[in-house]
């Protein structure tokens, strides 16, 4: 062990967004395992509910035409409302859909056949891979994709949605290493009421002000997850003054200049589609 007493550089946590969306298809087993091998501190993922009440790892509660084929293997034409509502599909049918098509926003991504996995499947595969790699356990940021407009259309009401997710996290015994993320304050409020020690993160869109949004939440979560464009030195200082100890983990940061700026502001974590880029910045 080195006896060098020189202070180490500040190092924010690396949160692999949907695994590593810039490299492999999002929210897939392949992406999570690759992010794990890259050494991320936290795996970020989204969850929705199927017609048979399975917790499915997916960003949209429908098949995204940009990355998914339908159950018959055909391309999906964009439509409004979206076709193939996952909340109306049993999981066996969802699993038949290939969602590993090349994302148009990530041309360097390596597409490959991939299904939408169950949350339980992801947690099991990650635990096994962690043991094989001999690395410390990774933590999880689980975003519950809930909106008031989507109740009983694209997902259950908040209490039921939350109970299904917590059941899976408890069964896998990973609740202590998990943070629940949501833009929907209702989810976080119910979670805090029933389990006040549960780590929670309030996500904010670019137009949502930090301090008023926290005040409206009614309690202090573990973490604030703002759009990275809203993170300024002044905003960070005001938050630190009003809420000492509240962590800041901006999303989704993919440009090196933005990563460097946020490291300078000493945010606690950075969510990125490119953990292979962010990780090495800590040593430069």
UniProtKB/TrEMBL annotation:
Q: Which residues form the GP-PDE domain?
A: 12-282
- Domain of life, per UniProt, equals Bacteria
- One Pfam family in the UniProt entry: GDPD
Q: Which Gene3D superfamilies match?
A: Phosphatidylinositol (PI) phosphodiesterase
This one is known as Glycerophosphodiester phosphodiesterase
Instruction: Give the source species.
Output: Hymenobacter negativus
Upper classification of the organism: Bacteria, Pseudomonadati, Bacteroidota, Cytophagia, Cytophagales
């Amino acid at each position: 062990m080195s006896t060098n007493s020189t202070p180490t550089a500040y190092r924010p946590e690396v949160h692999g967004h949907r695994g590593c969306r810039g490299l492999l298809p999002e929210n897939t087993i392949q992406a999570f395992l690759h992010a794990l091998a890259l050494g991320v501190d936290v795996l970020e993922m989204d969850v929705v509910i199927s017609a048979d009440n399975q917790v499915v790892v997916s960003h949209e509660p429908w098949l995204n035409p940009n990355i998914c084929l339908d159950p018959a293997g055909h391309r999906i034409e964009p439509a409004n409302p979206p076709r193939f509502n996952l909340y109306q599909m049993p999981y066996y049918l969802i699993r038949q859909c290939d969602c590993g098509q090349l994302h148009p926003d990530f041309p360097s991504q390596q597409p490959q056949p991939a299904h939408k996995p169950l949350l339980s499947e992801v947690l099991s595969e990650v635990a096994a891979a962690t043991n094989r790699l001999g690395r410390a356990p990774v933590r999880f940021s689980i975003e519950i994709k809930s909106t008031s407009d989507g109740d009983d259309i694209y997902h259950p009401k908040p209490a039921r949605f939350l109970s299904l997710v917590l059941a899976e996290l408890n069964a896998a015994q990973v609740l202590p290493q998990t943070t629940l993320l949501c833009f929907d304050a209702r989810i976080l409020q119910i979670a805090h009421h029933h389990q006040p020690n549960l780590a929670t993160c309030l996500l904010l869109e670019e137009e949502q002000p930090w301090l008023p949004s926290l005040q409206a939440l009614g309690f202090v979560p573990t973490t604030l997850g703002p759009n990275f464009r809203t993170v300024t030195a002044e905003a960070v200082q005001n938050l630190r003054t009003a809420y000492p100890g509240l962590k800041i983990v901006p999303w989704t940061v993919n440009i090196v200049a933005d990563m460097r700026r946020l490291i300078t502001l000493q945010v606690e974590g950075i969510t990125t589609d490119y953990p292979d880029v962010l990780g090495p910045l800590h040593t430069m």
